[in-house]
Design a protein that fits this description.
CATH architecture of the largest domain: 3-Layer(aba) Sandwich
CATH class of the largest domain: Alpha Beta
CATH topology of the largest domain: Rossmann fold
CATH superfamily of the largest domain: TPP-binding domain
Order of helices and strands: HEHHHHHHEHEEHHEHEHEH
Length: 327
């Protein structure tokens, strides 16, 4: 067995224990939504602008390969402002952009039905032995909420089970007051469910600048709390977002340089030379280690990221009794 796989198994065993001994947070990125068949970021932007892939790539290249800059251009061109959430007086309005995003996100009414990742995640959240304190998601969609609804429904009338029904609250603007007994699902970039009211969203370049420059913005505060206090599991993220890395660095330094978090990442080969690949992967491990993160690698043989739910299923298994003494 390659050394990285041996290290992987040791991290998974360690993480199983942390899931049951420390408060934990799952931090979810676009890969989680993509696993359920929802449009990815570029597809969402192409849908808003009615562009095909070639047109989008040409626009992206012309604007310096900046997806977020392309987003601002598309939104300003179509909706008359880079931040259509607010009018010229800065007042919050109900923009058409949210309705359009909802139509694109949920165009396929069966999206999410075949996902293996969402049920695997909800099994961990519902497991009576785990200590899941919160969920942080950078996605607009309601996949986690629907997954928990489905899990709760399956537990109705069941007398004995390792799982419990989970009450939750979708948080998207500091609306958690008097809800301390519910699991908070923080939609830190906004929330657009299949039905019902939506929230202000983070989508344009100016929106991201606002996040980057204000530590006191509610979503930054919630992320810092989780990164500083909890064991966090990063799923469906590349870990390249500058605001995420800035918050992690701050929490890592304030937390005494503890390496308490785990990121599930694809083990990619970008060079023909195997030695160069190993060096690049080792560098990535070192960089994330300095942000308090251990990498649980997976190989993506068929491009469908099927190993991710398998890793989550491993985490859901009870630890070997002796492992509890390690922490």
């Amino acid at each position: 067995m390659p050394q990285w796989k041996e290290i992987n198994e040791s991290y998974i065993e360690e993480a199983r224990v942390r899931l049951r001994q420390t408060p934990c947070t799952f931090v979810l990125g676009a890969g989680v939504s993509a696993s359920a068949g929802l449009p990815q970021w570029n597809d969402l932007l192409m849908g808003l602008a009615h562009l095909n892939k070639d047109e989008f790539l040409a626009l992206e290249k012309a604007m310096g390969n900046s997806e977020i800059r392309v987003a601002g251009y598309i939104i300003k061109s179509k909706y008359g402002a880079e931040n259509p959430e607010r009018n010229t007086n800065g007042e919050l309005v109900i923009p058409k952009v949210r309705d359009d995003i909802r139509d694109i996100l949920y165009k396929d009414p069966n999206a999410g039905a075949g996902s293996r990742l969402i049920p695997a995640l909800c099994n961990i959240i519902s497991n009576k032995s785990t200590k899941i304190e919160s969920i942080i998601t950078y996605n607009f969609d309601d996949l986690v909420e629907l997954g928990l609804d489905e899990k709760n429904k399956g537990l109705e009338g069941v007398k004995e089970s390792k799982y419990k029904s989970v009450k939750y609250i979708s948080v998207y603007k500091g609306n958690r007051a008097d809800e301390e007994y519910k699991l908070p699902i923080y939609h830190v970039h906004g929330f657009i469910p299949r039905s019902g009211s939506s929230s202000e969203i983070v989508i344009s370049e100016s929106d991201y600048h606002k996040l980057y420059t204000s530590f006191l913005y509610w979503s930054n505060i919630e992320q810092l709390h989780a990164f500083y206090r909890n064991t966090c599991f990063f799923v469906g993220l590349s870990m390249n977002d500058p605001n995420l890395r800035r918050l992690l660095e701050n929490a890592y330094k304030e937390g005494g340089n503890a390496t308490n978090h785990y990121a599930i990442l694809e083990r990619r080969s970008v060079f023909e030379d195997e030695g160069q690949n190993e060096e690049a992967l080792s560098t990535q491990e070192s960089i994330l280690h300095d942000l308090g993160i251990k990498i649980i690698w997976y190989e993506n043989e068929n491009g469908k990221h099927e190993k991710v739910p398998e890793i989550l299923n491993k985490l859901n298994k009870e630890p070997i009794a002796g492992d509890y003494e390690e922490l």
